[in-house]
Write a structure and sequence with these properties.
The protein is mainly alpha-helical and 781 residues long. 62% of the residues lie in helices and 5% in strands. The strands form four sheets. A four-stranded mixed β-sheet has the order 6-5-3-8. The chain is elongated and about 160 Å long.
């Protein structure tokens, strides 16, 4: 039969949701998901090189697939590290620093001796004793006065702040020469060693605790020339360590100097010490860098088909390096082409699966949040499946007799499909399961016939998640999946003639455990998607439908008429939603909350009035309309305060759409016709938005039609059906249904369902003789 091309294109282009919403954001999301999945699949498709740890034993023979030269980076780095460690540190050595310190110290003492020289000259003169004593006394006073005047200079030159007694020793004619000699001797003793602030740089980085320090190998750079010398550790001193060396040299018994003079000589000598050995970091680093560069890379050469590791041989570090290099090369050869091919394959699978399903399945309505939710589940599942496959390989090395299909039965692969079914519809879950089956077979690198087994388990999971009303049903669903997996595992073992304990018992138990694990994941992950993506499961809706909910209790207490009205509307909405295949439970719960805003000012609404009408005391119809319209924003505020899900808040916002408060608008128009102020229609209109979903549109229709049905005196099918169709046509003419996905077929089903429901809800009863029927007072506003 010939099929016209135009009709095929028209059918493909008539998709309800997905194809009409193909935009940059959704395409970008699919491309990103395809890229992530391609990454998850690439290692499985491109590499067949075994993975080992050092010490493992190889099964079989592995030869080089091509000629290669492998550079062992770790071994090369170790060799470079050893070469660097063999380079002694470079120090700048200046022997003149010690001589300069001694010379400056001697010059300072010579100044003191020059100051005392007149006393020596006077002592050598041949004059009378009395005259000499007198002149010596006067000269000593003069010299002492000059010394006191120059005391600050001497202290600065010696680098020591001296007390009066110490300065007297220094300026003593007889002691100054001995002090100079002792200080010079101490400095020569100190500078027989190497004085440096960088002693730590000369010692090896790794030293064995408890062992005596070995001679240090240093490179000394003196006047641009470098010589390698061996230095005893004790000959390398920091300036603050010199006191321990020089203190024994300044003991009083070593000389005729008094103890105070010995301590002063030691103090002056320590103050004159300056490092004669400085660590040259730049030169050392350059030398070590040159040593590292001089090390040749450690390489292993293999010809094609040359043996890399034999059967039963233990795996060494060298073997792992070679295998890693082969794996890297096989994964990178043509990587870009293969990765691009995988990306395009996955993208085409995702795009065509959702688009063609949307074009051909009436119940397949997919939104952006559905695409995002399923993308997250798909990517996470495949990455975890890939990780489980890697772990399964490691487990096979430890337990070679482990059944091959253990991963398939133990991994909770049905959980993502169960979550999708729990949050959306069976049709969406079915397409998701097809895609997941195809990609998981690639990710796990299992036999192709395993695809049928995986898909059957996913189908069982989908079926068990239909209209879950209790959490126990989720556990029951996981148990059914586990039992199905157990039976499939048993049949698989029989078909393969695997009658081992692992095949007949291990695999079925793994399947049952995997099914229970699915239930755990569904119960744990679903609330995250509910809160993050505004999904409402039947479990959540049933919890919200409890009349003990604070908002419903507030409504029943403050506005009992509105509460009973809401209950009646919820029954109508549920019946109508069932008739067109919409979410009946969502419509039921949304209807229960749609008028909660009336609980703040209940007396202004006719269903709560028992006597006087407060609107009669309001002169302005605009003010009355404002009070009526306020129950919508008030309800939204209350709903947000009580943290109702956005899907239920939509019922509050949209159940009046952008319709007007007709009763008070008519009053304002009558006033304008009588010559009063003109009527501003915008003041009488609800803020909207118009209904966006089938369920909110059903609520609007039920709310209006239920109120209109109260005015009917007779409720025959013809009268009620005519009224329902009239109100539906009126709301449609106002454009209130323009933004929701109700089809003409849905609207016909709504008329039929509401006609029967209104007749059942408002049926007549026979009045007994002692009963008198009174007409309802008040006006339904």
């Amino acid at each position: 039969m010939k099929v016209p091309i135009k009709s095929v294109l028209r059918r493909w282009g008539s998709a309800k949701g997905f194809s009409k919403q193909i935009h940059i954001r959704r395409l970008g999301l699919l491309v990103g998901v395809a890229a992530l999945i391609a990454i998850a699949l690439s290692p499985n498709l491109l590499s067949r090189v075994p993975r080992y740890n050092v010490g493992d034993y190889h099964v079989g023979v592995y030869r080089a697939p091509f000629a290669l030269t492998v550079t062992d980076e770790l071994a090369t780095a170790a060799a470079q590290k050893r070469a660097v460690a063999d380079v002694p540190p470079i120090f700048d050595f200046d022997p003149a620093i010690g001589e300069q310190a001694i010379r400056q110290t001697q010059l300072a003492f010579r100044r003191i001796q020059d100051l005392n020289q007149p006393l020596a000259d006077l002592q050598s003169e041949k004059i009378g004793a009395k005259e000499k004593a007198r002149r010596l006394a006067e000269l000593e006073q003069t010299i002492r006065r000059k010394a006191d005047q120059q005391r600050g200079d001497f202290e600065k030159q010696f680098g020591v702040e001296m007390k009066d007694a110490e300065f007297s020793l220094l300026s003593n004619v007889e002691l100054s020469a001995q002090l100079a000699e002792r200080t010079t001797a101490l400095l020569r003793t100190a500078y027989a060693k190497y004085i440096t602030f960088d002693a730590a740089q000369a010692r090896p980085a790794m030293a064995t605790p408890g062992e005596p320090e070995k001679p240090l190998l240093l490179q000394l750079q003196t006047k641009g020339k470098i010589a390698t010398v061996s230095v005893a550790a004790a000959d390398l001193l920091a300036p603050n360590q010199a006191e321990k060396l020089l203190a024994p040299e300044a003991r009083p018994e070593n000389d005729a100097l008094p103890p105070e003079a010995e301590r002063l000589a030691l103090q002056i000598a320590l103050a004159q010490l300056k490092p004669n050995l400085l660590f040259n970091a730049a030169a050392t680093e350059e030398a070590r860098r040159a040593a590292a560069l001089a090390v040749l890379p450690v390489t292993y050469n293999f010809e094609k088909n040359q043996l890399i590791i034999g059967d039963g041989r233990q795996v060494t570090e060298q073997t792992i390096v070679v295998l890693d290099e082969i794996r890297r090369r096989t994964e990178t050869r043509g990587w870009l082409v293969v990765a691009l091919g995988l990306l395009l394959l996955v993208f085409a699978t995702l795009f065509l699966s959702f688009w063609l399903s949307d074009a051909n399945l009436d119940a397949f309505n997919i939104t952006d949040r559905d695409v995002l939710m399923m993308s997250i589940l798909l990517v996470a599942t495949l990455f975890l499946f890939r990780l489980a496959g890697w772990f399964d390989d490691r487990l096979s090395l430890l337990f070679p007799r482990k059944p091959e299909m253990m991963l398939i039965f133990l991994f909770p692969l049905a959980a993502p499909a169960m979550i999708v079914r729990f949050l959306t519809r069976f049709e969406i879950g079915l397409i998701f399961s097809v895609v997941l089956t195809l990609l998981s077979v690639l990710a796990a690198n299992v036999p192709t016939q395993s695809a049928a087994l995986i898909f059957l388990l996913l189908l069982v999971g989908l079926h068990t998640m239909g209209r879950v009303k209790r959490r126990g049903e989720v556990w029951r669903g996981g148990l059914w999946v586990g039992l199905a997996a157990g039976v499939a595992a048993l049949l698989s073992a029989v078909l393969k003639q695997d009658f081992s304990l692992g095949g007949l018992l291990g695999l079925p138990l793994a399947g049952i455990f995997g099914g229970l694990l699915c239930s755990m994941l569904v119960l744990g992950v679903t609330p995250l998607f509910e809160s993050s993506f505004d999904y409402l499961t039947d479990l959540s809706l049933l919890e919200l439908a409890n009349i003990e909910h604070p908002l419903l209790k507030q409504l029943s207490h403050n506005a009992p008429g509105t509460f009973h009205h809401s209950l009646a509307i919820s029954s109508l909405a549920e019946t109508t939603a069932e008739a067109i295949g919409a979410n009946a439970l969502l419509a039921h719960v949304g209807a229960m909350f749609h008028d909660v805003g009336k609980s703040l000012q209940p007396a202004y609404f006719v269903e709560n009035q028992l006597g006087d009408n407060p609107h009669d005391q309001i002169r302005s119809p605009e003010e009355s309309a404002r009070i009526l319209i306020a129950h919508v924003p008030d309800g939204v505020r209350l709903a947000k305060e009580h943290r109702l899900p956005p899907s239920l808040i939509d019922f509050i916002e949209q159940h009046h759409g952008t319709r007007s408060a007709a009763y008070f608008l008519a009053q304002a128009q009558q006033r304008a016709a009588a010559g009063g102020a003109p009527a501003d229609e915008s003041l009488f209109r609800y803020p909207g938005p118009k209904p966006q979903t089938k369920e909110t549109a059903i609520l609007m229709l039920c709310d209006v039609i239920e109120a209109r049905s109260r005015t009917l005196e007779k409720r025959t099918p013809e009268i009620v059906g005519g009224m329902v169709r009239e109100m539906l046509d009126r709301i449609r003419a106002e454009g209130q249904l323009a933004e929701c996905p109700l089809t003409e077929s849905d609207q016909e089903k709504i008329v039929t369902a509401l006609t029967g429901a209104i007749i059942g809800l408002r049926h007549e009863r026979i009045a007994y003789p002692d009963q008198v029927r009174h007409p309802r007072e008040g006006t339904n506003r």
